[in-house]
Amino acid sequence: MISDREFFRNFGFELEIEPAEADFFIEASPARSFLGAEFQVLEVPGHCPGSLCFFSRKDNLLVGGDVLFASGVGRWDLPGGDADLLFSGIHEKLFPLGDAVTVLPGHGPPTKIGTERQTNPFVSEQSD
Prior knowledge:
By secondary structure, the chain is an alpha+beta fold. Helices cover 15% and strands 26% of the residues.
């Protein structure tokens, strides 16, 4: 998306985007070091293509970006979004990390996976 000047315009957004080329891509991986910290990289698309979450097993911490929020999830109605991919990714990739895992979302307060599993109106097991 960052290299295509017309990407957002094709969806009706009148944005002037200066194309950029990524220096490198980060892909899903069981272990990757970032500045000395070890993370599992999880691809959880749905909010946008290629959306990533970073899990530190040592710290029981998930840097979740715009995937899972306290009582919410990332938008899926923007270009490249997909509700089914988002919801299934949360169930299949994030929930198995464990209820005690703290989630640092891209917006809003931290939460726990167990809290969201039980109470999140978008993905709770209560609404399945």
